[in-house]
From TrEMBL:
Residues 292-869 form the Anoctamin transmembrane domain. The lineage of its organism: Eukaryota, Metazoa, Chordata, Craniata, Vertebrata. GO terms for biological process: plasma membrane repair. This is Anoctamin. The gene is ANO5. One of its GO terms (molecular function) is intracellularly calcium-gated chloride channel activity. Pfam families: Anoct_dimer, Anoctamin. It is a multi-pass membrane protein. The chain crosses the membrane at residues 302-330, 383-401, 459-492, 512-533, 556-577, 677-699, 733-753, 826-851.
Length: 914
């Protein structure tokens, strides 16, 4: 008789739906020989017991024959569009969950969906039920019309643009034509079930792509009711997942990513994507964007388009930044400032004032020889050029992205797609929580409504939470500053030995040690705060009960971006604009909390410390992010599969394989965008101090694209397809950061870099025409009389020096009238800095506005193609309707003519009778 568990499962399935049984009989008739078919006809007339016995045998045979990679029902014909899974719960609410599932699946069947249940005894872990869902043709055509899905009506006669003059040089990076363009281009129109003859329907089973099918099924699942509880109607798969009624809901991958499709599967797009996109050996290849869109949907597709375009634009910025660094390396030996600092006769004779009270000793200027040379790599004449260039680059990037986005909207049939279509689709959670209803002015229908007074408390809580966590970030930054101030004295006590006062080169200064350890500590604090804030912000946003998914994402985006902006950039802003600016001078230093003396910059400036901070945070974030994205799903999937393989003799089916994969989630793409935007901030906001930032971002993005592709195709369940025509609110954030970056880079060049003081010295104070920068170091250091040190600040060990030097522009102690006051050079330098900021900002903003005006948002050829497609679509629709009208009129004319002939014959008959 066979496996009794399988027989029991089939018997339960037969009781569940008589329509499924009938369908299985029909499929069996088609696959059997004529003898078996005749036998089945006889069996239909036999008693029900013998009929069920035959059916069980037949389905058992099909079960054994089913491949583990099958994406079909047991009949091998109906495609699986979605899968639900659940585990028997032995807790007290197990009956309630079972009742919810029963009601939910019953309502799914009422919508026209077809379900097939796999018993837990046939699963590998022996405890999970799988509910496979198939959307038949009538359901697909109905909801395709509801969702406004565009489908092909005629193959396009507009050739693809291939006018790139570099297409022959770019041959190695191109993918095969069949991968780049898996389907021909079509003229499309919104699907209408009453106009099915208009559309190019060759095969109903393959007419709707799998991404459209799973999108339709998810739309039904998210609005299907499962009962009434506490007087409220409950519905939506998301609520059932939250309550653990179902453990998961997901569409299936096409097949295995390591091998092509086998019959009866027609195509395995997952395998094609893995071979041509997800492999790291293809890092230099272009992305198969159309195939990504077809498989994962437009929303995920447009993210990879944006990431790829951003990476391409980084090539230019990285090349210029690398050139600036090479210039710094080549001009290092010719740099007069570092030469004087390293010279034993100049820098070696300059005794510098202690960098902390009592514990720190005096030190010679040439002990900072190495840091002064390193500082020149990033602080030279090319710094100004690169800052201006990046201001123009970011404008070109955003303007060209608008053009790329417009071209994408045309190619992916998103021209007429409006976000309002998404806004009309309410979140099931919002509908469930609302007690009030009001008329929608757009649809003129009654819909759930949440009064403002119900949301205000949550808005206040949300604002207070964000403010508290941003204050916590600032407090953490202050704590790191306190750490730096505390450990600086410790480093100085054992690192500033007699070597710093002798003519010995010191390669690791207390400033550098403090900067490195402080930056590493700050990075660890950033990661910890991010981990906790992500959980809290998601919970707060959920409690606000946003109306639509778009509102939910916008609210979460604002919270997360504000927090991460402060979290990642606050320490960089401190080093760039505050450190060393309010130090005071020897004998009258400023103190933090009246305890710790404010940090001073290196004699070469704070730019090298800002570069160190950026390098550690940016590089650490990127390395940690890529390792987390690659290792996290790999480890969890391995562990989940290891736990699931308890019944290894059972069929490890396609739905079980996908069930053991990690979930991408609705916010998976959100965090990818957030990561890219934060990186964009490092590339633009502080790039004047770190010209290698674009190169690091470029290398990271090349890896990031392949890591994201690899995890989506191999380690994650297939996400539900969703539409989008832009990157949404992230575009506004990028524009805002582009504007801020002009100001930050101007201030970095003016106040953090040493460019402006050197230029003022060159034009106003240098007396050496042959070497105009000679003597700059001595000019930039003021003199302090050691006898003027207060007792509590003077070094504990007495020295024979009478004066020491410090970085500032102040009158010497000999000038009794202006002793230690700022001299005229200080005001000249300050005026030059302010002038530079104003001039640079106006030049960059003027160029930005000119470029924005000159570069159209929509390319001319795209405008022409859009007009051509709209014209052809209207013509095709007109011809179709005219043809139908003529056919109807022709039938009516024929009927009318027959009636006239009959009336005439009757009249003639009556006349002849008379």
């Amino acid at each position: 008789m066979g496996d009794p568990d399988l027989l029991e499962m089939v018997e339960q399935e037969g009781k569940r739906s008589s329509r499924d049984i009938t369908y299985s009989i029909q499929m069996s008739e088609q696959s059997m020989s004529s003898r078996e078919s005749s036998f089945l006809i006889k069996e239909e007339r036999m008693p029900a017991k013998r009929f069920n016995l035959f059916l069980r045998r037949r389905l058992m045979f099909q079960k054994r024959e089913q491949s583990k990679d099958s994406v079909f029902f047991r009949d091998g014909i109906r495609q699986i569009d979605f899968v639900l899974s659940y585990v028997d719960d032995i807790k007290k609410d197990s009956d309630l969950k079972a009742e919810r599932r029963k009601e939910f699946e019953l309502n799914l069947r009422k919508t026209g969906l077809e379900l097939e249940v796999e018993d837990k005894r046939d699963s590998e872990d022996g405890r999970t039920y799988f509910v496979k869902i198939h959307a038949p043709w009538e359901v697909l055509v109905t909801y395709a019309e509801v969702l406004g899905i565009k489908m092909p009506i005629k193959e396009s006669d507009i050739p693809r643009p291939e006018n790139n003059p570099l297409r022959y040089m770019l041959g190695p990076v191109k993918l095969p034509q069949e991968v780049r363009f898996p389907r021909p281009e079509y003229f499309t129109a919104q699907f209408s079930r009453h106009r099915q003859e208009l559309f190019l329907i060759e095969d109903e089973a393959t007419f709707f792509p799998s991404s459209s099918r799973n999108r339709i099924v998810y739309y039904i699942l998210s609005r299907c009711p499962f009962g009434i509880e506490d007087g409220k109607k409950r519905f939506g798969i998301e609520r059932l997942l939250t309550s653990n009624t179902y453990s998961s809901a997901y569409p299936l991958h096409d097949g295995q990513y390591w091998k092509p499709a086998e019959p009866p599967n027609i195509v395995n797009e997952r395998y094609i994507l893995y071979q041509n996109w997800a492999r790291f050996s293809y890092f230099y290849k272009e992305q198969p964007l159309d195939l990504i869109k077809n498989y994962f949907g437009e929303k995920i597709g447009i993210y990879f388009v944006f990431l790829g375009f951003y990476t391409e634009m980084l090539l230019i910025a990285a090349a210029v930044g690398l050139a600036c660094l090479i210039y710094g390396i080549l001009s290092m030996d010719a740099n007069e400032s570092s030469t004087e600092i390293c010279d034993p006769e100049i820098g070696g004779q300059m005794i510098m004032c202690p960098l902390c009270d009592q514990v720190c000793d005096y030190w010679r200027l040439n002990s900072t020889c190495l840091t002064s040379k390193l500082s020149h790599l990033f602080d030279n004449e090319s710094t100004v050029f690169f800052a201006i260039f990046m201001g123009i680059w970011v404008t070109l990037f955003l303007e060209f992205w608008k053009q790329r986005q417009a071209r994408l909207e045309y190619e992916w049939d998103l021209v007429d797609f409006e976000e309002e279509q998404q806004q009309l689709q309410l979140r099931p959670e919002f509908e469930a929580m609302c007690k009030h209803r009001k008329m929608n002015p757009v649809t003129k229908e009654m819909e759930p409504y949440m009064p403002l007074w119900n949301r205000i408390p949550w808005y206040f809580l949300s604002g207070a939470t964000v403010t508290f966590w941003m204050a916590l970030v600032v407090s953490s930054m202050v704590a790191v500053i306190v750490y730096r101030l505390s450990v600086f004295a410790t480093f100085a006590s054992f690192m500033e030995s007699e070597a710093s006062l002798q003519h010995v080169k010191v390669y690791f200064t207390p400033q550098l040690a403090t900067s490195l350890s402080g930056s590493c500590l700050n990075f660890m604090v950033i990661l910890m705060l991010n981990f906790f804030y992500e959980k809290i912000s998601a919970w707060i946003t959920k409690m606000e009960i946003p109306r639509t998914y778009q509102e939910y994402e916008s609210s979460l985006t604002l919270k997360m971006f504000l927090f991460q902006f402060v979290n990642y950039y606050s320490s960089c802003f401190y080093v760039a604009f505050f450190k060393g600016k309010f130090v005071g001078y020897p004998g009258k230093y400023t103190y933090l909390f009246n305890v710790w003396r404010s940090e001073e910059c290196d004699p070469g400036g704070c730019l090298i410390e800002l570069t160190t901070q950026l390098t550690i945070i940016m590089t650490g974030k990127q390395i940690f992010g890529n390792i987390k994205e690659a290792i996290y799903p790999l480890v969890f999937n391995w562990w989940r599969r290891r736990k699931a393989r308890t019944n290894s003799e059972k069929l490890y089916s396609r739905w079980e394989q996908d069930h053991d994969l990690e979930t991408f989630g609705q916010l998976g793409l959100f965090y990818e965008y957030l990561e890219t935007v934060i990186q964009f901030g490092f590339v633009t906001l502080f790039v004047a101090s770190f010209p290698l930032a674009p190169l690091l971002a470029l290398l990271n993005n090349i890896i990031e694209i392949r890591v994201d592709a690899w995890k989506l195709t191999t380690q994650y369940r297939r996400p539900v397809a969703a539409k989008a025509h832009s990157i949404g609110v992230w575009q506004d954030i990028l524009y805002g950061m582009a504007v801020v970056s002009v100001a930050t880079n101007a201030f970095i060049v003016a106040f953090t870099s040493d460019i402006i003081p050197r230029l003022v010295y060159y034009y106003a104070y240098s007396t050496n025409t042959t070497h105009p920068f000679k003597g700059y170091v001595n000019n930039s250091l003021s003199v302090f009389l050691i006898a003027d040190f207060p007792n509590h600040t003077a070094p504990s060990e007495k020295r024979d020096f009478t004066t020491c030097r410090y970085r500032d522009y102040r009158h010497p102690p000999e000038d009794d009238e202006h002793k230690y006051l700022h001299n005229m050079q200080f005001w000249h330098v300050l005026a030059a800095k302010m002038t530079f900021i104003i001039v640079m900002e106006h030049i960059v903003f003027l160029v930005k506005f000119l470029l924005a005006w000159m570069i159209p948002d929509v390319p001319k050829d795209v405008e022409e193609r859009i007009k051509r497609e709209k014209l052809m679509t209207v013509k095709i629709l007109h011809d179709f309707e005219l043809k139908k009208l003529k056919e109807n009129l022709g039938i009516n004319s024929e009927v009318f003519s027959k009636q006239v002939l009959m009336e005439e014959s009757k009249a003639q008959l009556a006349k002849s009778t008379i």
